[in-house]
Amino acid sequence: MHRTLGIDLGTTNSVTAWLDDGVPVVLPNRHGDQATPSALGIDSRGALLAGREAVHWRAAAPGSVVTEVKRLIGRRWDDELVQQALTTRPDNAPPVRAGAGGSVEIRLGEHYLSPVQVSAILLRRLKEDAESAAGVPFRRAVITVPAYFAEPQIDAVREAGRLAGFHVARIVPEPTAAAHAFGVRAGEDGTKDYATVLVFDLGGGTFDVSLLTIGPAYFAVDRLSGDNLLGGADFDALLDDHLHERLGERDHSGELDAFRIRAAAERAKIELSSQDVSEVVLAPLGRRGGSWSGTVRRTVFEGLLSEHLRRMRETVESMLKEGDALPEDVQRVLLVGGSTHIPAVRRILEEIFGADKVAHSVDPMMAVAHGAAVEAGLLGTLDCPAETCTVEGIPATADACPGCTAPLLGTATVDCPVCHVPAPELTAVCPVCATDLSGLRAATPVAAHTECPECGRTDNPASATLCLDCDAPLEAGGLKCPDCAMVNAAGLSTCSFCDGAFGTAPAEQVTAQPIGLELSDGTVEVLFPDSTPYPTEWRRVDDLVVRDSGGSVRFNIWEGPHLRSAQRNEFCGGFVHERTDGLRGEVPLTVLARLDADRTIDLKYRVDSGDWYKARLRRVMISPAVGRKAAELHARYTDFLDTWKQEITPAEQDALTEITADLAALGRGEAVGRSLDGLLDSARDTLELCARARDASARASVAARGGRGLLPPALLEELRDAAEAVRDARGAMDTDAMRAATERAEDLWTGLDPAVRVSILAIRFAEQDSYPATLRREVLAARDALRDAVERGDQAAQDTQLVRLGRLYEQGRDQFAEVSTPAAGSVLPSRR
Questions:
Q1: What CATH number is given for 511-619 in this structure?
Q2: Does ATP-binding appear among the keywords (predicted)?
């Protein structure tokens, strides 16, 4: 049986567990610890430090150790929650910046990495330690996430697991995993046949609370609530601020003082969970090596937490109300997460539910990892990971999808020796730092064989369920029955021998918040209300239309409670349906949507009565606002290239086409491989410069040709030279030269007598047949009269014809054929 690793990927600490003889067992790391700090660092020689090693190194170089990356994974730089999370980080934490496509990047050593890449490095270390401890390879994983994670964060965690070398079999909400670990069985300890259980999960970075119903072989999540930015890290920040205030004007500006104060705050928080007073000593302190000592009392700490405690209590009470439940309806309260050790937190729950209902039977730090291992034992089938394949229910013993041969096991990976980001074996060049990886090979995997407990044969394949010699049952990957002690096959929730219940079952999950489609008026058409059980069947939305679009249809999916303003919610992803033939008027649109077992959104749609299309949501971190601006700018580029295609130079064509492609990608929500900082401004400047240069060159040329007799010969020569200089710069797409030459040509043009300028333009438009026939005849007649006056040297007649041409030019401005402005990118659906 291919073994699956259960992983609690925590904000502060991470824990791994597996089913050993049908029982969840935490796997120690290389230092013998059950929990691994979710920290990564780079030492002075460039070597990777993980877990405890990184935490110790932080005392010497806090700016080289990354922590709490889970708060940033799957989010955009302009996300309000990202900016809020950054305010709680220590002042000397590694730099964080906006990355390509509007994502978030964190500096690890000499390189800026995405939160997905940082998490993949950590997961890779957890995988290595778990395999060493268990003595078996783990090429599949069940990874837990906060219940309040939106779909982009879930997808980012899955991607980090894939990058680390796992086939991610399931993403499980942390409260659900914790409930698996407690193994609440209906009828036990006075619970009813169908028990209502509340899971209170307060970890290092997130807070979740869930209401569940558990019965014989039945497990359902009824309600979810929580806060993705509330946890132990925030409590550390409060104590950190408190210690800074206590220090007052005492010098604490030393190089490592910020780290010492933060570390002291973390220690005090932990100590105050078990004692009333914590002693704090800060030494050395300041640039002259002073010291400070003092105490922090639990009552003071609880006072600092008062606002957070109030929010937690309100969240619990609100969720009960929304779930039509009373405190007395809850039979058990399960505590999860290290921060539930804080007495004030437990006291809230005891006040609401009574002390006898608050369960302490499982270590809150280990509960989620235990539950992830249990979930692995409940998974008897897998779905194909390929986007275009629809095969479901593949036996967990399979190595690949029977329909499309997509692998159901993680790929062998190598670690880049420079940036440390894992990459698939045989990758030629590191995609992050361009280091040559061609000579690297994955480490020899732990033997993927199963030893028979009866005859001792050691080379049974990992996927075998029976010994090849004696037919004795091998490790089946399932749960041990608490009644008869039989280890069952994976995928069972009741014993195959005695029919006894395991105390848990595959969970029926629900959505935490509404998920919906953005409409053109900025509101949300709800596809899945909050508390929708998933996976779902396809849901159809009719009566949608697309109005007055010359281009494409955009689908934006959001998750959150703000139905009147889509952009106040969490952006799940977007998709653009390109229409080369355009759309006009009111075109019918039909949308189908569903959620899979991991809460991933699938979308299908049909425009008018055409074919059905499948949409793959793009979850890159590009802001929808940036996408709209890019789409509008792309329409302007397309119009410019189409209008002036006969006049622009090959160099201009190449440069503008390249930018047009980037803008099109941004408009579709795709990353462009470079930072968005200044990209749109640069694109606007480039288009403006090309348009100015074309106009300046054309006007200078027209003035040089049409100004004979009206302008001095020296000025005519200057105009010709200026036009030639602009053309030369455009031919090389030398932007600096273009700008200088354009400004010179513009200065010459604007320095002309206004009446002469207008007359030259009117004559040029007439000669190009740009005017209606009657007006054109009048302009040409005035032109001929002006030329006659110039030849005669009759200044009064010249002035008369210049005034006449000016009047005709004004008439012509209103008679040009109207040119329709192209649609600004794609449009959103509307209600009929």
A1: 2.60.34.10
A2: yes
